Amino acid sequence: MSSESIFEPSQLLTILQQRETFQSNELAEQLNIDHQKIVGAIKSLQSHEEGSHEYRVFDLVGEQGVPKAIIDKESFGPIGFGKAISAGWITTEVKNGVSLVVRKAKLVEDKARHELKQINEGMHNLDTKTIGNLKKRKWINEISVKALIVSKGANFNENLSKPELDLTTEMISTGSWRSKNFKKYNFEAMGIIPQSGHLHPLLKVRAEFRDIFFQMGFSEMPTNKFVESSFWNFDALFQPQQHPARDSHDTFFLT
Asked: Ranges for the Phenylalanyl-tRNA synthetase domain (predicted)?
């Protein structure tokens, strides 16, 4: 049994029938199950027999009330106290200088226990919110079961054989291809993507420099003017008249 399997409370009853007693951590190790799943199943059984955590707190408080410390000592105390407060079943007040937890409601209905009992009896028409609350409290696990309908097809055969993928020379020479079952071609299947070309290394370097300038804040000025006058190329940039860049061997001049 793997640690991912679901452990039902009914399985605990079967184990108790066989062993009479067990320790939760040892049982989890023997069955290779997460210990928290064993604990959840135990809590589910307790809730089914003794009531929910909040109902047990309400019952513990009684008519006279009890100190909060007594509730905290119980395993169901912290969770049950919070839920009983939220439900308006109990409240806290000071009597004779002592802080007590007292009942706020005279009669309460343990809905959680009733809902769990409905599920155990096979009633699964509870609303989504109720099921979600029970799952959060680890009282139930939801299992999805899928069923498949199987029927005979046109090519039904009791002999299992894989369809042939290729037409070989041997099949043609022996004529065995006539009795072979070939796999149908899927003409809509995507073919192998052909290898495309790639950029020249110099163009890659040029593109990298271009991206660097863009990241620095420069913008590319669209132009189709590949020939520029000396004024815009040199004078407008305040380049000296005797600058070496103006020489004919550094700049292409058109006449």
From this structure: 184-254
